[in-house]
């Protein structure tokens, strides 16, 4: 009886739906009508509730399936990287963007191999790390298919004291500019947890992605002046080439003041070694943790991950500066480093991304604290059928 009744209700509601679908909008009677079951792609010419109004104005399309900046993320374990049985002594985290050079993908990341897992700032010393990203080096791996990776070893070691990074170098990202390669990274001058996280950004460069890397030995993005939003740290440097310049986005975090949260800023330059000019409208994104962006159409799209009012959104700025929410998503890749075919081509027609490397962390107890790299796949590309993209899509 129940299923019979249910089918009658279903059939009659479908009939109503079909009936309503083709009806023209009549503003005069709109207020009395219920909203059509089939969501119109264009904003209907009728008075709408705040929620329905927002559905047409806030996102890139009223339905997620029509929104080019909506996706569901999928994850795959990587082959080839050893974690010592997950005992916390080896970590790989905060991967760079992935690049493709002469038949191989490359990724750089924060690497730690210590005799113990992190023990917190108080118990740390020259060999015991305080946090997962303390006492680290920048290592790299290559792959032919994006799933099986061969670790190649160190790219940027810790420089001697007192240079920026003597305590730890971490959270790197890659720029390719005029045929040369640049790795930007956080250079710790003290243990993380004892204000070491107040670190600036340093850079090393090379003629080949396999190195050797020459440290520039100068801070390339300094912390902001006293009282500035980025006074305490410049983290997660993330360079792209846009509008003939280097657009380097970064995170700062207001030193944990509970009234303020992590946000993202922009610094631009004509030369990879600087000087970088911080954008006068900084911060340009009001949320997010690790920094992940890519050229999209004429502008820049951002994965806004983890922190802030607008966490778990994909955002878009037509000018690379004024970001708006394009979609709300779930299960975002943490610290995502996408493969972006046009990251450095100065494109005015960004095509988006389909995969990359991210990390997951076990941060629940100090004894096993470490992070693991994994692959994410997504549909944030305008060209899933483009042969060039397909080649890299596997
Ligand atoms: C990360 C990044 C930066 C922070 C720490 C290590 O995920 O945001 O690199 O400093 O956490």
Ranges where pLDDT stays below 50 over 5 or more residues in a row are 1-28
Shape: globular
- The portion of residues assigned to helices is under 10%
Tally of contiguous helical segments:
4
**Small-molecule binders:** 3,6-anhydro-alpha-L-galactopyranose
Q: Could you describe the largest sheet, including whether it forms a barrel?
A: 8 strands, antiparallel
Report Rg. 24 Å
Which structural class fits the helix and strand makeup? mainly beta
Strand content bin: 25-35%
Overall mean pLDDT: 88
Distance N to C terminus = 50 Å
Sequence of secondary-structure elements: HHHEEEEEEEEEEEEEEEEEEEEEH
**What is the number of strand segments?**
21
Outline of the structure:
With 394 residues, the protein is mostly beta strands.
How would you portray this structure in words?
The protein has 394 residues and is mainly β. The chain is 10% helix and 35% strand. The chain contains four helices and 21 strands. The protein has helices at 2-21, 27-30, 50-57, 387-393, and strands at residues 74-77, 90-93, 99-101, 104-113, 137-143, 149-156, 168-177, 180-188, 201-206, 214-215, 235-242, 245-252, 263-269, 277-278, 292-297, 299-304, 313-317, 324-328, 337-338, 350-362, 370-381. Strands 1, 15, 16, 17, 18, 19, 20 and 21 form an eight-stranded antiparallel β-sheet that branches. Strands 2, 3, 4, 5 and 6 form a five-stranded antiparallel β-sheet that branches. A four-stranded antiparallel β-sheet has the order 7-8-9-10, with no helix packed on it. It starts with a helix and ends with a helix. Residues 1-28 have low confidence and may be disordered. 3,6-anhydro-alpha-L-galactopyranose (AAL) binds next to strand 7 and strand 11.
């Amino acid at each position: 009886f129940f299923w019979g009744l249910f089918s009658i209700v279903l059939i009659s509601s479908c009939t109503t739906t079909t009936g309503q679908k083709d009806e023209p909008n009549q503003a005069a009677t709109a207020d009395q009508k219920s909203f059509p079951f089939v969501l119109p792609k264009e904003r209907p010419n009728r008075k709408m509730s705040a929620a329905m109004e927002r559905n047409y104005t806030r996102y890139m399309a009223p339905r997620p399936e029509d929104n080019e900046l909506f996706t569901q993320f999928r994850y795959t374990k990587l082959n080839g990287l050893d974690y010592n049985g997950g005992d916390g002594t080896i970590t790989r985290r905060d991967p760079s963007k992935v690049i493709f050079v002469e038949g191989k993908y490359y990724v750089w990341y924060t690497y730690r191999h210590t005799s113990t897992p992190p023990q917190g700032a108080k118990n740390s010393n020259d060999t015991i790390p305080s946090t997962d990203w303390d006492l680290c080096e920048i290592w790299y791996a290559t792959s032919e298919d994006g799933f099986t990776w061969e670790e190649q070893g160190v790219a940027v070691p810790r420089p001697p004291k007192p240079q920026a990074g003597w305590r730890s170098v971490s959270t790197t990202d890659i720029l390719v500019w005029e045929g040369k390669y640049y790795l930007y990274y956080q250079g710790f001058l003290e243990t993380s947890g004892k204000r070491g996280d107040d670190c600036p950004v340093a850079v090393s460069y090379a003629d080949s992605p396999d190195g050797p890397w020459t440290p520039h030995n100068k801070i390339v993005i300094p912390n902001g002046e006293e009282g500035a939003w980025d006074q305490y740290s410049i983290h997660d440097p993330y360079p792209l080439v846009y509008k003939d310049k280097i657009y380097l986005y970064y995170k700062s975090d207001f030193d944990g003041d509970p009234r303020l949260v992590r946000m993202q800023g922009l610094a631009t330059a004509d030369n990879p070694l600087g000087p970088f000019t911080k954008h006068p409208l900084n911060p340009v994104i009001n949320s997010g943790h690790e920094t992940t962006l890519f050229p999209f159409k004429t502008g820049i799209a951002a994965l806004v991950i983890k922190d802030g009012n607008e966490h778990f959104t994909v955002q878009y700025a037509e000018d690379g500066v004024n970001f708006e929410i394009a979609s709300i998503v779930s299960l975002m890749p943490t610290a995502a480093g996408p493969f972006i075919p046009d990251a450095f081509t100065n494109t005015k027609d960004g095509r988006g991304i389909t995969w990359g490397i991210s990390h997951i962390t076990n941060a629940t107890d100090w004894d096993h604290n470490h992070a693991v790299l994994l692959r994410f796949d997504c549909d944030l590309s305008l060209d899933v059928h483009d042969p060039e993209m397909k080649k890299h899509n596997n």
